[in-house]
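agent> fetching stored inputs for the manganese (II) ion docking request
agent> found them:
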Amino acid sequence: MPAITADVLTLPRIATPDPVTTEERPVRYVTTAPTGHEGEGFPVRRAFAGVPMSELDPFIHMDQMGEVEYAPGEPKGTSWHPHRGFETVTYMIDGTFEHRDSHGGSGTIRGGDTQWMTAGGGVLHIERPPEELVVSGGLFHGVQLWVNLPRAQKLVLPRYQDIRGTSAALASTADGGALVRVIAGEVAGHTGPGATYTPITMAHATISPGARLALPWRADFNALAYVLAGSGSAGSEGRPICKGQLVVFGHGEALSLSASTAQPSAEPALEVLLLGGRPLREPVVHYGPFVMNTKAEIVRAFEDYQAGRFGLEPAERLTHTD
Ligand code: MN
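agent> prediction call returned; pasting tokens
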């Protein structure tokens, strides 16, 4: 799992939260993501399936894409499709992904890079592996997270940002047993490059076999941990967790995760995506590619999409199909 890695001995250290003065978040429950297929067929795990929206707020949806080893000619992407009312955050761990949208945004992300797309008032886009990866096949593994937009900013102008993996803030635990990559927001004073309209924290932690990661976590944020690979336990109660499971933490000021001493041979460490955000506490109506506050706004989104108000697919695609 390449993502971005570093010699942990050279990194700034995260001080372990004092258990006497810091209230640790209990594990409320652990869910297991069902598997499915996205678009024309890449395998995904639906990380948030079955979790009430009120617990996810301000997050809406998350897919773990892959991990899959494609044969030549096999890699697949999505077709052109619309979004309105939220932001997509795509983090590539292995492999390469391309993005193009009707608002002029385009970019290629690979191992450890993140792409931020603010759909805002409406965008059409396509997400797919690049042509050379389709030809060669290869490893493909990433995550796409949907972050809600506050009511007042649902219809902002679309925006596209590429964030290189090398710009993530890196830190390690005191014993060097865990590496934390802060992609957005802040963890123990380490601030990542990503910025969404609503405050969030997003970090990818690699915890070595037998090691423990304990972090301070903002009390006004929710706290979720999704297991990308490996096995271990969550919280001081030691709730067992494995690949494809989501931990929903309760209230508190810190959280902890531990990696099992023995890991699956193909997955040498516990790999976890840590997520937190300040809940918007606004009504959420999510229908297909649109996330709005009311049903009437969803109807309006479909009308605007069908009337071509989300823009046009770039010309390259149009000539391609002629
Ligand atoms: Mn999309």
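agent> quick read of the result: The longest helix spans residues 295-306.
agent> awaiting further instructions
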